[in-house]
Automatic annotation (TrEMBL):
Domain spans labelled Response regulatory: 8-120
Record-linked InterPro entries: Bact_response_regulator, CheY-like_superfamily, Sig_transdc_resp-reg_receiver
Superkingdom of the organism of origin: Bacteria
SMART domains: REC
UniProt keyword terms in alphabetical order: Phosphoprotein
PANTHER family: RESPONSE REGULATORY DOMAIN-CONTAINING PROTEIN, STRESS RESPONSE REGULATOR PROTEIN 1
Record's keyword annotation contains Phosphoprotein: yes
GO biological process: phosphorelay signal transduction system
Protein name as catalogued: Response regulator receiver domain-containing protein
Length: 125
């Protein structure tokens, strides 16, 4: 991800082990990474204005991933939502709220990195 070395990804998940795995994987690709465990912390980091991409789980304490991606869309921050629901209405809702991508659980960290690279390639933040 050489051209994206200065890109900052915010990864939001209540699961600390997943946070650690994804953070390590993204850092190995040259990304800066911030993590949040809940929707309120994610919104605080978004408001600081240093985020180039949001990756969030749907189910979060305090604010849902859907609320987060809607705010990201208003700020022109691309987002990916991760969900254990593959129901079509949930997928369509995510895209209607501004998500750039939707990933079903379980997912591969390698797949997530490829999707992030693709967004960075097409969305110059």
């Amino acid at each position: 991800m050489e051209e994206n070395q200065k890109q900052c990804v915010l990864f939001c998940s209540p699961d600390r082990l997943i946070q650690k795995i994804i953070k390590k994987r993204l850092k190995s690709e040259g990304c800066k990474v911030n993590v949040a465990s809940n929707g309120n912390d994610a919104l605080t980091l978004i408001e600081e204005g240093k985020i180039n991409l949001m990756v969030t789980e749907e189910m979060l304490p305090f604010k849902s991933g859907f609320e987060i991606i809607e705010i990201c869309d208003q700020k022109d921050i691309p987002s990916i939502i991760i969900s254990d629901s593959d129901l079509e209405n949930k997928i369509l809702e995510a895209f209607d709220l501004g998500a750039y991508d939707f990933i079903d659980k379980p997912y591969s960290p390698n797949e997530l990195v490829v999707r992030i690279k693709n967004i960075f390639k097409h969305h110059r933040a």
